[in-house]
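Reading is simple: the token line describes the chain's fold. The lines below illustrate.

. . .
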Amino acid sequence: MSKQSDIEKTVSTTMSLDLRRRSDVKKYTLPTLRVVAGPDMLRFCSIYPEEEVAIGRDETCELVLHDSSVSRRHAVVKSAADGSLFLMDLRSTNGTALNNVPIPPNTSTRVNIGDHIEFGGVTIRVDRLDMDELAHLARVVERLDLANKDPLTGLVTRLYLDEGLPEVLVRHQHAKVPLTAVFVDVDHFKKVNDTYGHSVGDDALRAVSRLLALSVRDSDTCVRYGGEELLVILPNCDETGGVQMGERVRSAIIAHEWNHYAESMKVTISAGVAQYRDGEGLREWLDRADKALFAAKAAGRDRVARASDLP
């Protein structure tokens, strides 16, 4: 059984048996290896006490990475009885680095929470996550792996606008609950491509998309609208909630460790928010969100704009 399945089972059991208020419960956390740069961004594996996690391209590894610079069995991370973590390179082809310092093969090296492990083109951060965070992360990764997704970003394709969104709109009209659209665009994306190359540009767009998916609710839908423009549909959410989501994503992208992609690299986003108005067409609604995005760019970028503030 996978680590994610174990985690979700634990979460389910805890929620059904522990009736104390959440503020009274001490959260159980696990050290977790999470990919923060590379094609497998957001993939993760938690480490239980006195366990060993193998990392590599081989499907038998606990944390499988698909980057060609990673060996089939590249490295292992072990957890001691006291919770201490140790990293060992398994004589990989391209070696392993800890916080940008190469480590010798077949030698245990102490790892701390917050450290970064580098395997060729892949960067992994050592985090400590609670059960809620792990369960949410597992659901996000599962959604990104589903079929009928954009191959680069893992988000829903634009076909959703014709095949899924009209039905969502009808349901919300009948239920008389708010529905909000948020357009998100990577600022100066052409400059990113021109400065660092299209490969790094693809990595940046993939990272933005996955940070977006991680920042929204399970009920929200993230769409690759076109190029570097993304769209989020927020059921049962008004314009203020859409702005809050946009600001949450904007902050997550600013805080992301872009230096692992290219030296001195920085990425920001702009966003436009529009709540659906009774009686308007789907295209009219999305056009208002798009105009709000344009207003955010015109005001200097790296910000979120409301459609209701436009003339």
